[in-house]
Amino acid sequence: MSNPDPMTAMRRPLATFAATHCAWHTEGDGRVGVITLNRPTRKNPLTFDSYAELRDLFRAMAHASDVRAVVLRGAEGNFCSGGDVFEIIEPLTRMAIPELLAFTRLTGDLVKAMRACPQPIIAAVDGVCAGAGAILAMASDLRLATPEARTAFLFTKVGLAGCDMGACALLPRIIGQGRTAELLYTGRVMTAAEGERWGFYNRLVPAASLFDEAIAMATTLATGPTFAHGMTKTMLQQEWNVSVETAIEMEAQAQALCMGTQDFRRAFEAFAARATPVFEGH
User: Fold this and answer.
1) Which of 87, 155, 189, 249 could be bridged to 160 by S-S, CB 3.0 to 4.6 A?
2) How far is residue 26's CA from residue 20's CA, in Å, rounded to a whole number?
3) To the nearest 10°, the Cα dihedral for 87, 90, 95, 97?
4) Which residues are within 8 A (CB) of 31 and not within 5 positions of it... i.e. 6 or more apart?
5) CA torsion 218→142→14→131, rounded to 10°?
6) Per-residue pLDDT tens digits for 157-207
7) pTM: predicted TM-score of the whole model, two decimal places
């Protein structure tokens, strides 16, 4: 018997990831990972530990053998209220610049990990979505929200700049420069209706069906061509930094790689047989 491919052997299931500062489980035969920010009595704020754990979890996604799409949500009617006032904000006021920079780099590393993980991330947003919580929604690939969702990049409300965790780079790509400037300068709430109209939210759904809708969307993506989805995410991330000519060449190379996968062959064979393709992720 031949030895298994060494790169394949490096992949590990994430279903058993031991989360302690958020809730983690998988659905859909393990293909959909669900991250729940679960401090509902305080509207699911983040702590130093939860920032680090989320960063590590998203970094681990690159080597997952099971999870193909991710749903990110908050518990009990709110998404995330940002950094915990007493567990993050108050300690930060007593830190020196080197420690402050270590913290801001930690928060930025979480966004980098979300953007670098190959799986599409769907944010399911209800209620409060503020500060770093709004950034988590922004850093996701797709966003569903309830009509009650209230999103605010409120850094100026606490005397900070709006340029936090990549907001000045990513948010204009989603809603435009002018709208971004308004939200980051004023810190005001973006209503769910505005968020949908501006393209921040892909669509609004009733609160009672938010999670089911997010799982349905994630399941659809998880049963699709995994390698190709990861390539699409990579190109969406990288092509903002290059010329159109370079982007076209990048896409030519990326698509050629996808054409070399068994998923591409399976899709053709299924089409020829008038059947539904079954993608295996390679």
Assistant:
1) 155
2) 16
3) 100
4) 66, 67, 68, 69, 219, 222, 223
5) -140
6) 989 999 999 999 999 999 999 999 999 999 999 999 999 999 999 999 999
7) 0.94
Which strand (E) or helix (H) includes residue 111?
A: helix 97-116
Candidates 3.30.420.40, 3.30.230.10, 3.90.640.10, 3.90.226.10; correct CATH number of 6-222? Answer: 3.90.226.10
Decide: helix, strand or coil at residue 18.
Answer: coil
What is the SS3 assignment for 27-52?
ECCCCEEEEEECCHHHCCCECHHHHH
* Contact criterion met (CB below 8 Å) for 129 and 146: no
pLDDT tens-place string over residues 71-83: 999 999 999 999 9
Sheet holding 121-125, edge to edge: 23-27, 32-37, 69-74, 121-125, 142-145, 203-204
**What DSSP character marks residue 17?**
-
Task: Given CATH 1.10.3470, say whether it is the number of domain 226-272.
Answer: no
Percent of the chain with pLDDT over 70: 98
User: Three-state SS string across 61-95, please?
Assistant: HHHECCCCEEEEEECCCCCECCECHHHHHHHHCCC
Q: Where are the domains of the chain?
A: 6-222, 226-272
